[in-house]
Specification:
5-stranded mixed beta barrel; Rossmann fold; single chain; 231 residues; alpha/beta
Length: 231
């Protein structure tokens, strides 16, 4: 056990789906997995292990932000033998080509966080997804008839930005959307020799100001769940 996960040894599958919301993890476990069991519940950050189409798979919440996912991803990789983490989350659209419920495969993640300073690198680390997972997700989406957008996202440390137009600078660099976790996930995986991918559903748009409800984010982002489960 770790300070943040009370699961027993070998409780997790080699692949873990990781939504930010623990209730979304519960939704995935209850609606998609068979022979499912709750394996961790510290601070109500629920983690489950079950089977999908005969394959063992786990799902666990990450919480919000780089510090939170940084803790859970590191402990899963380092202490529980997890090899792959697929983040299934929500994001705010920066691109005019994105509508609510559109799917993004995050090929890379920018950040305004100081997270990379942990590694004392003599430069700026480019956080990218594992290519095999990215390609598999892209092909899964095609087979399921789901259109996806592939590109760069911003992992932001700030939700309520003081400069309300700061996002437009990222938009000018063709960054598709903003979320709060992927940079840390990709960096940790690179450091530990593991594999990661982020799949996002557009929950709101900074251009049109449309947005989904909390309940919709919890239960209706099923397309990205199906893409991830079929990896």
């Amino acid at each position: 056990m770790t300070p943040h996960i009370n699961a027993k040894e070998n409780a997790f599958a080699k692949t873990v789906l990781m939504p930010g919301d623990p209730l979304r993890a519960k939704f995935i476990a209850e609606n998609y997995l068979e022979n499912v069991s709750l394996v961790t519940d510290v601070r109500n950050m629920f983690g489950y292990t079950g089977e999908y189409k005969g394959n063992k798979i786990s799902v666990m919440g990450s919480g919000m932000g780089i510090p939170s996912i940084g803790i859970y991803a590191y402990e899963l990789f380092k202490f529980y033998g997890v090899e792959n983490i697929v983040r299934v989350g929500s994001c705010g659209a920066y691109s005019k080509d994105l509508n609510l419920y559109d799917i993004i495969l995050a090929q890379g993640a920018c950040t305004n966080s100081a997270f990379q300073e942990n590694y004392k690198l003599p430069g700026t680390f480019s956080a990218i997804a594992d290519f095999d997972l990215l390609l598999s997700a892209y092909n899964n989406a095609k087979n399921l008839g789901i259109t996806v957008h592939v590109g760069n996202v911003l992992s932001s440390d700030v939700f309520y930005q003081d400069d309300v137009d700061a996002w437009k600078k990222w938009q000018s660099m063709k960054v598709l959307a903003v979320e709060m976790e992927s940079y840390a996930l990709y960096a940790i995986a690179a450091n530990l020799g593991k594999k990661t991918l982020t799949i996002l559903t557009v929950s709101d748009s900074l251009i049109t100001h449309e947005e989904t409800t909390a309940e919709e984010r919890q239960t209706s982002f099923t397309k990205m769940m199906e893409i991830a489960l079929n990896l």
